[in-house]
């Protein structure tokens, strides 16, 4: 019993210390953000690595999610004679929830793990220490451009996910199931509001982009500089980022739709 209490206390202290290091790391990275903005070519390189290389899985996933939503939604709405509202169901589900959430999870699995592995490899091969020896701040040169790129890329990816999902819903609902094309688009346009629906999804995507990228680069910089340490940090990134996305989605939804 005593050993269990000691183990619980040690794990709690380790978690609190890691949380403190993560917030100090975030503060130092934000301080170095000014240099990243001035040298925007570094950010563009990371936008390509984190955003463009993640685009294929985002588009394919968005297409199939939209198609499944249309198929499931039609089977439910047709029971009430409301199949013409299919476009509203697909669009609101994607724009409010599935767009930012699924994009955040896919971004964590693809770009987040790659960031952690890259930075962990830099640490294990002492590249970060080499930069410091040459009086180059890793926060300005390495961490800040990656954080800014993740912050910018995830909202754009989420918007593309939702747009492709709506087209996928059109393919199934209109072309396959025979929903009237005018009703599909007109009801969607009249029901979906930019301020209360689209903006809500974009705010979520911005928050997810910041948090997922923060977790990814911190885990890489804080990992044990061994192959096993880098592998463990990559796993922690995916797990923590996924849980953070789901938890923040609930909190943001509760706040924004209760106002």
Would you write up a description of this structure?
This protein has 259 residues and is an all-alpha fold. The chain has one domain (40-251). Helices cover 87% and strands 0% of the residues. The chain contains ten helices and no strands. It has helices at 2-31, 33-38, 40-50, 55-77, 86-124, 127-133, 138-176, 181-191, 194-222, 227-256. α1 (2-31) crosses α7, α3 packs across α7 (138-176) and α5 (86-124) crosses α8 (181-191). It is elongated, with a radius of gyration of 21 Å. The model has no long low-confidence stretch (mean pLDDT 88).
Major sheet, described briefly? Answer: none
How many distinct domains? 1
Q: SSE order, as H and E?
A: HHHHHHHHHH
Assembly state of the chains shown: single chain
State which percent range the strand residues make up: under 5%
Secondary-structure topology with pairs:
Layout: H1 2-31, H2 33-38, H3 40-50, H4 55-77, H5 86-124, H6 127-133, H7 138-176, H8 181-191, H9 194-222, H10 227-256
Helix pairs in contact: 1-7, 3-7, 4-5, 4-7, 5-7, 5-8, 5-9, 5-10, 7-9, 9-10
What's this, in brief?
It is built from 10 helices and no strands. It is an all-alpha fold. Helix 1 packs across helix 7, helix 4 packs antiparallel against helix 5 and helix 5 runs parallel beside helix 9.
Key attributes of the depicted protein:
about 260 residues, about 85% helix, elongated, mainly alpha
């Amino acid at each position: 019993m005593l050993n269990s209490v000691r183990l619980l206390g040690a794990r709690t202290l380790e978690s609190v210390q890691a949380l403190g290091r993560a917030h100090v790391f975030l503060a130092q990275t934000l301080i170095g953000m000014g240099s990243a903005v001035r040298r925007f070519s570094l950010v563009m390189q990371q936008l390509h690595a984190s955003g463009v290389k993640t685009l294929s899985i985002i588009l394919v996933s968005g297409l199939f999610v939209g198609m499944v939503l249309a198929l499931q939604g039609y089977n439910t709405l047709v029971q009430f004679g409301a199949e013409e509202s299919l476009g509203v169901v697909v669009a609101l589900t994607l724009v409010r929830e599935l767009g930012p959430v699924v994009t955040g999870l896919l971004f964590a699995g693809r770009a987040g793990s790659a960031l952690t592995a890259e930075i962990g490899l830099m640490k294990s091969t002492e590249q970060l220490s080499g930069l410091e020896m040459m009086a180059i701040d890793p926060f300005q040169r390495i961490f800040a451009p990656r954080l800014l790129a993740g912050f910018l890329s995830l909202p754009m990816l989420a918007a593309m996910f939702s747009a492709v999902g709506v087209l996928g819903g059109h393919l199934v609902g209109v072309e396959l199931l025979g929903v009237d094309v005018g009703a599909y688009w007109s009801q969607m346009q009249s029901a979906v509001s930019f301020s209360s629906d689209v903006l809500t999804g974009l705010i979520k995507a911005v928050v997810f982009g910041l948090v997922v990228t923060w977790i990814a680069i911190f885990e890489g910089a804080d990992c044990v500089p061994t192959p096993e340490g880098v592998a463990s940090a990559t796993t922690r990134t995916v797990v923590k980022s996924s849980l953070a996305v789901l938890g923040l989605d609930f909190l943001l939804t509760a706040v924004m739709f209760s106002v």
